[in-house]
Design a protein that fits this description.
Elements lengths: L7 E6 L6 H11 L4 E3 L18 H6 L2 E2 L12 H16 L4 E5 L3 H8 L10 H14 L1 H11 L1 H6 L5 H14 L17 E8 L2 H17 L2 H7 L15 H7 L5 H24 L5 E4 L4 H10 L2
Parallel strand pairs: 1-4, 1-5, 2-3, 2-4, 5-6
Length: 304
Amino acid sequence: MIESSQKVIISIVGPTAIGKTALSIKLAQYFNSEIVSADSRQFFKEMCIGTAVPSEEELNAATHHFIQHKSIQETYSVGDFEREAISKIKELHQNNSVVVMVGGSGLYVKAVTKGLDYFPEVDATIRAELNSQLEKNGLASLQEQLQQLDIEAYNTIAIDNPQRVIRALEICIGTGKPYSSFLTNPEKNREFKTISIGLNAERSLIYDRINQRVDLMIENGLLDEVKRLIPYKDLNALNTVGYKEVFEYFEGHTTLEFAISEIKKNTRRFAKRQLTWFRKDESIKWFDYQTDVEEIIEFIESQL
């Protein structure tokens, strides 16, 4: 077991719909610990079904932090999360040497375990020009530009999020260097050891699980949830898979059937990006998603 003086984060990562929540609860119960969520889509209290927030039963099975603690109308950056999460982890470590962290948002996981990367200041006019290009020519033109300037960033960032694409492009243009070249800064010293567990499965199986989850979201009332959010559809938090496709349907641009197929397709793409991001981290120990929890616990204890 763990020495009380050794502070540990067990970080559970992997693609969407793979079973991270279920594993995090089992580990939190075993280590009598609490869970820090690093899923940036689950921070917002107005978004529940489309972000696959843990069920009431799951939330009651272990204490969770950073789930639906913000409003979509508040600005909340990865830097804000890093500060608040580190502070919460420090507080939790006073009572228990183990904290479980779970989430598929690679940048947010990295912010906690290794710290955020440093980016040089660039001329503000570049962002203004990119925003104007977005308005005139749409997101596809910016994605194409990023693909040419920095293929690595194109393959790993949330390419459907205009803010992320513009951020990467302004760094490429403003510094003359790829955005991805700034993602290798020295890690911050943390007061805890991180043990990273990755869950994975055959690609076709991940895709099947995603398709089933989307069907379940529709059954559980995703359309009503999105309908209530129409007045806020231009907020950045809602420019995300599962919401933007349904907004298109409500605006009469697509059929419901097409909107659902787009959610499935875009979620599959998101899962592919998650895996591309996490596979770069050699410290992650990967397990098949059906691995018995005892085997995972055995591995964790062997690392302590």
